[in-house]
User: Fold these one by one.
Assistant:
Number 1:
Amino acid sequence: MTIQPTRAVQNLVPYVPGLQPRTRGYLKLNSNENPYPPAPQVSAALRKATNPQLRIYPDPVCTSLRSILARRFKIPASNFIIGNGSDEILRLICQAYIDPGMRIGMFAPTYTLFETLGQMFQANIITYPLEDDYGMPSAVFSSRVKIFFLANPNSPVGTFYPPQLMARLLSTRPRTLFVLDEAYVDFAPQHCLRLLRRFRNLIITRTLSKSYSLAGLRIGFAVASPQIISQLYKIKDSYNVNRLSQVAAEAALRAVPYFRRNIQRIKQTRARVRRELQNLGFRVPLSHANFLFAIGQQTHKIYRQLKARKILVRYFTSESHTPGLRISIGTEREMTTLLRTLKNLIRGDKP
Amino acid sequence: MTIQPTRAVQNLVPYVPGLQPRTRGYLKLNSNENPYPPAPQVSAALRKATNPQLRIYPDPVCTSLRSILARRFKIPASNFIIGNGSDEILRLICQAYIDPGMRIGMFAPTYTLFETLGQMFQANIITYPLEDDYGMPSAVFSSRVKIFFLANPNSPVGTFYPPQLMARLLSTRPRTLFVLDEAYVDFAPQHCLRLLRRFRNLIITRTLSKSYSLAGLRIGFAVASPQIISQLYKIKDSYNVNRLSQVAAEAALRAVPYFRRNIQRIKQTRARVRRELQNLGFRVPLSHANFLFAIGQQTHKIYRQLKARKILVRYFTSESHTPGLRISIGTEREMTTLLRTLKNLIRGDKP
């Protein structure tokens, strides 16, 4: 006989991440990875950190990494928790705060993991469709939910909600815990960390997967009041962040000039690609992330044609908005390849 | 105002792992880490795997690592799931199968994480005290629980329950899912993997933290029927095992002669240390793990005295059994230091 899992798990539709091809030769613009390698200091630190210390468990609370973050952001180390990617942090928040049937809120569209996690923990999910221009809907200001999940910049479009707007939302709904996923914020003009001083109903999550080119090493973190952070510590796996990821994260965070140049390059490429996509006839909303959302005719067909040519982008549909292609910003050269291929496809030439 | 977590999390007493001193100079015999470094092939593989691929997400389902495990154990790759340490796997099992109030069983004493996880998922925990000689209590054969958690060899004593006994238990209780944690099994004379062919109510968990010297990289796995494994895949974080840990695990699993020599050395040291602890007057039950459990007078005092001399062992108490010291097997030289210090303490000399 087979022993059955809980009903919530039986019914669960798992989150589907962007395709990770195992063969080479793909131009991978589907998971918002950084096209540039991590800082050279990361490799140097990793080489020093291999054998023989790997036999010892890692620091369960990432003391050194948190102290670097504390100095960098001028926030006490006790306000941080480090996760095996920010996905782990988001799951910990759900596990710590969601009781079955509890009302949680999120935009539509947004980071699709929010919905998967809500289902996993049997929340009652209330979605707030964004305005036609992806602006924040006014209904959010009267939302009665225990937790509200936002990504800022938001996916799949890259819309950025400025800190003043966020502050207004946080003060209007003081009984709602706002989980603000700033995965892409290093590509945006501002961030919301300083709101943590004023608001106790705020958790901000960050990742080193995008702006620090460390998706392969799984490092994310949350910043919030020590009261909130201590609840997450209670339920995390004891040794959730391995030794090499801790070392790599520390080295990456210290390499500030490399980080700034990397961000700058991606923003420049983003501006150029947006103009060229517009010239090709796509509608491309302003994005403050390391991706662009291209809306136009037959985007699903174009998605499949690109895939057949070994160019992976992500096709997004939603009930409330026009479907489109989410295209990660690659190197200048990669984007030139993409744009040339798109031009040929749209003109109907065989490239 | 502060937003409260769920009642289960509010009430939770977190698992306390062995002390991880951040300063050097400790003799660390408290976390059952392997005293020998990982195979040299691991460093070589890690050096090759650093920059620039770290910018890309890891394989979410560890395809290459699972195929190595499949060949090694002659079990299909679809029967495996890889975790960020076997602690993650154990948590996934609880999350997938435990409904609040559900009866789960475990020995007393055993791996203390089982109880923490049971509380986290609001199980009704039924404990079965081991016999005085740490044998399996007969009450287990009439247990009415949905899940039973066992470690084999068991902690903190190192008792090994042979596969024939496990088979009898599995066939007697076909409606109970048995989670058999074989973290230490490479130091034991047999294992239970072949029982998976006969029994669908069995999940076996393993780790590379102990016998493969990779505690710092967090790699564990579960083996069970694809029906069970698929439930765990649904709820795991998408990219739960980072790139470098996957690479290191593959290299470590391929280095079979190094692995065998390592195990052999630890077993030899274990036999010697057991005799010498017995000569010092301790009662030391037979252990098939990489640790020994020393029972005697004033073990808590000895624990503190050792700690003051920068030797860390673990002091375990239980309601049902005499307290004692769990001592991880270190190198020959480390164990000589420990035994000399113990001798001096017991004789009352100042070492």
Note: Chain B touches chain A through 82 residues (CB under 8 Å).
Number 2:
Amino acid sequence: MHDSSRVLERLHELAQLGRYEAGIDRALATPAERAARDRFAAWARAGGRTLTQDRVGNLFARRAGSDPGAPAILVGSHLDTVKTGGAYDGAYGVVGALCALETLDARKIATLHPLDAVAWVGEEGSRFPLGCLGSAVFAGLTGVDEALALVDDAGIALGDALADAEGGLLRGLPQREPEPLAAYVELHVEQGPIMERAGMRLGIVTAIAGQRRFRVVASGTSGHAGTVPMSIRADALAAAAEIVLALEKAALEREAVVTVGRLVVEPGATNVIPARVTFSVDMRSPDDAVLDALERVLDEETREVGARRDVRFSRVPLERRAATPMNRDLREAIRRGAASTGERTMDVPSGAGHDAMCVAAVAPAAMLFVPSIGGASHVGEERTADDDLELGVEALAAALVEIDRMLGGAERG
Amino acid sequence: MHDSSRVLERLHELAQLGRYEAGIDRALATPAERAARDRFAAWARAGGRTLTQDRVGNLFARRAGSDPGAPAILVGSHLDTVKTGGAYDGAYGVVGALCALETLDARKIATLHPLDAVAWVGEEGSRFPLGCLGSAVFAGLTGVDEALALVDDAGIALGDALADAEGGLLRGLPQREPEPLAAYVELHVEQGPIMERAGMRLGIVTAIAGQRRFRVVASGTSGHAGTVPMSIRADALAAAAEIVLALEKAALEREAVVTVGRLVVEPGATNVIPARVTFSVDMRSPDDAVLDALERVLDEETREVGARRDVRFSRVPLERRAATPMNRDLREAIRRGAASTGERTMDVPSGAGHDAMCVAAVAPAAMLFVPSIGGASHVGEERTADDDLELGVEALAAALVEIDRMLGGAERG
């Protein structure tokens, strides 16, 4: 079998695990997700890799390096999905990592550094309430015991779920021991429309966007829709509408996206002036200074609109995540590797979060994107063209060689 | 007992019927509402009135006129409430009519025309799905059999409910026969803040607002809140927000009120761009031409915003009610009567609907308002100052004399 078609075969195989009518549901420590980890292990063994596993179930498949003392270069992504997931988000980066190592095998290319294909667990946070669970534990951002104590909606602790024969840890694998790291690279589908619209097939991620989420409440004054003159109303919905548009305008003027995705009107009757509107604000930018500016806009606009309309605004921060710039040297090495395929690359920010965010806390990290058809993501219909999937693996293999060379040179030069 | 305090006593007595923690719930043909009609009949009989009843339960209490051939002047309102009603909406106009007739008795003032205090049934439409039910049937706008066939949420037909001993028609009353009408006058609480803010205690209604209601759907394109750039979004909520503000602006520039009281965002998740927003539009104006203009604004704005944002708008008309101007001669007669109390009057539109809308189809009609404290309406806490309630009855009695004089002169002059 030609290497490049192997990535398609394996993705197809994984896509059967957790499949239902709306897509793929493969949450951490379920039988379907465990089966995906089993497949990873089987492919890794067949490729001659050395497998290790850590206490939360992250799997590492090592291709040895020629320098016994060199730290490993990690390459991978995650195997779990959201509840209505697709075949590529996460799975592509894991399968792509294994295939890239096999490409180097086939071409008899040795690297100085060991190359570890990694399958992180629980990136999506769709069962246990923590995103990037496996990589956060790996990077020491979340304690392993804290992670194992997380409970799902049914009250089952992760520790118990991982001890279960059906969905738990793989049996008989050696424990991964802590060790120094040289770098981390993650191959992923873009999950957005930027590359497709630009007609580009390979994207080098500049940064993973920082994110701030708020719940905002606008409290005005209710009243009869027929009897209260417009001039004396304190309509909570009209006030909220101004904020929605002001945030949109502020985002358009900056390198950012702002979304009001949830908005609830109370009492919510046709003939009653809205008394209270509760809405979410989700701000993302690869630049934390831009997020600061957007938060100031939210602050100033709610103050101004609130005073003018006699509507009281309050807000609660729900989430705050700093932007994670990708390592510049790694980006350049990936760009050189990608260039060897003959395809041009473009710089692209990642609006979605990824394991690379967490791993960046303990190693230089970077990401390589391939386009998503129609920008669709987190839906059963997410698609990437077969040619692009194959190209991404080819570029990743070349990038690993470039990274190995760069790091080897830097360490020994 | 002094006449003026009688109105307070009687309102207090009615307020016990259907009372619960959130206000008063006195829906048509329930035991509480039947009890209110019983009270009306008892008070009317005690005052020497002749009672009649029609097939849907409207009650008429006649004070005879001195001209046996003269058509009757009707004066009244309704006894039912919304589910969270207060003590004054409707009840005040019914009790006020009885009290005004008694004021004329006490002052030994004869009128040429018979004066019929009327208690309309089912104005609020809170049980059977038709507002102004009793007055619509009376005016021939709704067939009596059609009305009796209406069913409530429990599947009970109005005809059966009115045949029931607990909530049905009063027993042993003669049937009201169709006859010519001279005029209709309705005393009511304003249900809005205009008079209170103007410091005025008596309002002459210029017109009952026409009303148009729509359900509007904005269909945009969903997507990941982190990965779709602002510049290519088709956010249904941002589009709807523009319409909310455009309608508000259009209403502020005209003699109208426009309310978006209901707005639902789908899918409604913090991290998903809104795909679809469904919202209500409630437009009211005493001038149908203004409603036409507002509908054109809705049309133009949805077209412009929809094209600019690539969001598809559709709308369904839910309700359309023409404005009902009040009779000019009656308004002037009421103004003269009201002036005799020493209080000034102001012209005021009625944003809410009233039985006078229906009766206006078969007789000259007009309305007299007293202020609502804080403009509160359709809530248990609706209040009008005792002094204002008493003043309204006094002004109504004087207005009836003026109307009788005016009509008598016109008919015989």
Note: The longest strand of chain A covers residues 210-219.
